Amino acid sequence: MARMKVNRRGVTTVPVRLGVRSYPVEIGKGILSKFGKRLSELQLTSIGMKVAVVTNPLLLKLYGKNLIHSLRAEGFTVTVIVVPAGESSKDLVWVGRIIDKLVAGKFERRSALIALGGGVIGDLAGFVASAYLRGIPYIHVPTTVIAQVDSSVGGKTAVNHAKGKNLIGAFYQPKLVFADVEVLNSLDLRELIGGLAEVIKYGVIADARLFRFLEANMERILGRDPDAWLHLVSRACAIKAAVVSADEREGGRRRILNYGHTLGHAIETATSYRCYTHGEAVAMGMVFAAQLSVEEGLCGVTTAKRQYDLIVKAGLPTVMPDLSSAAVMHAMDRDKKVVAEQVNFVLVDRIGRVRIETVERQRIRSALKSFRQNIRSRFGRDNRRFEAHHGGMGRTFVH
Ligand SMILES: NC(=O)c1ccc[n+]([C@@H]2O[C@H](COP(=O)([O-])OP(=O)(O)OC[C@H]3O[C@@H](n4cnc5c(N)ncnc54)[C@H](O)[C@@H]3O)[C@@H](O)[C@H]2O)c1
Ligand SMILES: [Zn+2]
Fold this sequence. Notes:
The structure is a single chain. The chain is of the alpha/beta class. The protein folds into 2 domains: about 5-185, Rossmann fold (3-Layer(aba) Sandwich), CATH 3.40.50.1970; about 190-390, Dehydroquinate synthase-like - alpha domain (Dehydroquinate synthase-like, alpha domain). The protein contains 15 helices and 13 strands. α6 (about 190-205) packs antiparallel against α7, α6 (about 190-205) crosses α9 and α11 (about 280-295) runs antiparallel to α12 (about 300-315). The protein binds nicotinamide-adenine-dinucleotide and zinc ion (ZN). Nicotinamide-adenine-dinucleotide binds near residues 56, 59, 143 and 146. Nicotinamide-adenine-dinucleotide (NAD) binds near residues 58, 143 and 187.
């Protein structure tokens, strides 16, 4: 795990070590108003200190003013670029519109682009920063759990194409990631819990202590205790930073981050992204991956049960209520992870350690068929807690 440091003001710094492309991820409570000063210290921008803040209307209202004020107080000239909230803004049309604003504002190589938002704003602004003038400094101020623990670290940027998600993109590392966990207070509970699925994932793939912390502190976490979140975001970033430093472009080790995602992506595709958040789909994917690990003889039922219990405790779904295994298998087949009759699967050895295995397609198909039944009979519970939160949505599938 990347080593983290905590300074006098309680800000945790996680270094992402990538040679000349290295950068810090800084995580703190109520630090948004210090952003201008921090950026100024980095001396990324040239005389005139031109920066553009890319955000959406809600975030501009909630946090933009504070952030922009802190930038102006340090002498930056700030251009604000507002894009509509939601995944549909992550496309080439908005890339073009943002670039138009940068050209009109005479942005140069040493002007910086700041993304204030979740994964959508981060992926979009990061991609623009990678392309404009062949690359200008980029900083992400992540505002969702997904962005704070996942998308802001690692340098993957992308926009969607009509034919597929994230089809157009680049590896482009930011100069700084500046995460204030207090902004998570305004996040929709379902978004918060969805992001928590990725944190659980980090515990399972690399950090048994983080997993125990999640088991012992779920009430505080769901109650948005800032100290609990400071801990979660810091540990998650440290794990992602270590994995990314070892494998920047997803050749080998980085693939362990896909734990729960093979089935998760298939569920999202099979339901046309309409029923579950990404994290919810990943939660079900993790339950399935652990069951497959038991069936393949890699881990014991106790390990799978511990993960299952934590997922239930978090209020995440565990099984696919009305989704046929055939529909999911079909979606998985279309996914790039399928090589001939084998599928690359991240499987669990024990909490804190996973491995990548190729599994026969046929084995997955039969495991999927018995998935629901097995989980219910083994662990005796189902999606009740999740459905109590979300009114049983997820029952109205489009196959
Ligand atoms: N680059 C990567 O490595 C990577 C990794 C994971 C996901 N992603 C991408 O990230 C995107 C999903 O990101 P996301 O889950 O952050 O969604 P998002 O960026 O769409 O944000 C979700 C919603 O929450 C709102 N919101 C954001 N911050 C808020 C706050 N603090 N308070 C209140 N509301 C807030 C947003 O306005 C939006 O409506 C997808 O496009 C996905 O492809 C990228
Ligand atoms: Zn994910």
